[in-house]
Amino acid sequence: MAIPLIGKVRQVFSHDIGIDLGTANSLVFVRGEGIVLSEPSVVAIDTDTNKVLAVGSDAKQMLGRCPGNIKAIRPMKDGVIADFEITEAMLRYFIRKVRKPMNIFKPRVLVAVPSGITEVEDRAVKDSGTRAGASSVHLIEEPMAAAIGVGIDVQEPAGNMIVDVGGGTTEVAVISLRGIVDSISKRVGGDTIDEAIARYVQRRYSLVIGERTAEYIKIEVGSCCPIEGGEKTLEIKGRNLAKGLPSAVEISSEELRPVIREVAELMVEAVRTTLEKCPPELAADLVDRGVVLAGGGALLRGLDQLIHEQTNLSVTVPDEPLLAVARGTGAALEGMDLRAAYGL
User: Fold this and answer.
1) pLDDT tens digit string along 212-227?
2) Does residue 294 lie in a domain region?
């Protein structure tokens, strides 16, 4: 189809954007360029002036280290907006950072959201994007974006299961013929594991740690199945609850495993529930195709093994699963009808 002159002009002077607006991290895909930005979903503000001081990596460095008048906030909770104004500021930062001087038109934005969001949450995302500088905001469900991003052919008449484990949610979906046949959005994810680790360390060692330390522990020694090649240990530091003084203890992957596995079991429960509701023909497809993991949580040691043990399905972890949703939004942008894409 030939593109009218105005459409060609918009292609040159605009920049369609796909955003994986995550609880822990946000990624931005620019049409024609790929993923150009990956930042923690954190905003630091001066509470006296309400001025935004930092966004992303710079703001995350401030978590737990701010003076009284500076607050580091994570505006997303469970995959949806918890703080409307701060999310708007974060989106504005992302859009301005990827915008080039030649982009005279406001960008059209495609945002990946959990499949279980409410109409109010849906409207909040769209309003935040529009007020942040988008010409229009469209939504795509995270499981669909993740499936596209890992290379699943979502158009074929066959069942594919995608499990997207993010910071705030675990999205499980069976996809066929470009649609989600059945899905579950469970508000449990990487942040839930971090919180469980922090509670365990405080209960077991009377040591108070921050969320950044809990996340570091999860990455370094966290697992929900025995680790091949031997267990790991890590020295962690925090404030001793009894003495009120800085202290350090050594923690092992083996002792943490029951804590992490308890959360991981909730994720697997979502997979099992989705399988139980799956139509017989699509269930038969899954025997051959198995399950594909996406999202940062897919990197948790042993999660693929745990799902396999409890479902008897093969589990695949693609390269760079954290980028799956963002790549999927980009592919969705590229594949959109030109008339819809440029408002012709």
Assistant:
1) 999 999 999 999 999 8
2) yes
- Model confidence, pTM: 0.87
Which domain, by its residues, includes 278? Answer: 158-188+263-321
| Same domain, residue pair 228 and 200 | yes
Mark whether 216 and 120 lie in a shared domain.
Answer: no
What is the SS3 assignment for 184-206? Answer: EEECCCHHHHHHHHHHHHHHHHC
Per-chain mean pLDDT for the chain: 88
Give yes or no: residues 299 and 232 share one domain: no
**314: helix, coil or strand?**
coil
Average pLDDT of the residues in 180-185 = 92
- Both tokens of 310, joined, read 């409890």
Strands in the chain per DSSP E: 17-21, 25-30, 34-40, 43-46, 51-55, 70-73, 76-77, 80-81, 108-113, 136-141, 160-165, 170-176, 179-186, 207-208, 233-240, 246-252, 291-294, 315-316
User: CA 21 to CA 90: how far, in whole Å?
Assistant: 10
Segment (H or E) for 269: helix 253-277
| Of 155, 159, 143, 153, residue with least CA distance to 289 | 159
The span from the CA of 252 to the CA of 236, in Å, is 10
Pairing status of strand 108-113 against strand 17-21: parallel
Span 314-334, mean pLDDT? 93
Q: How many domains does the chain contain in total?
A: 3
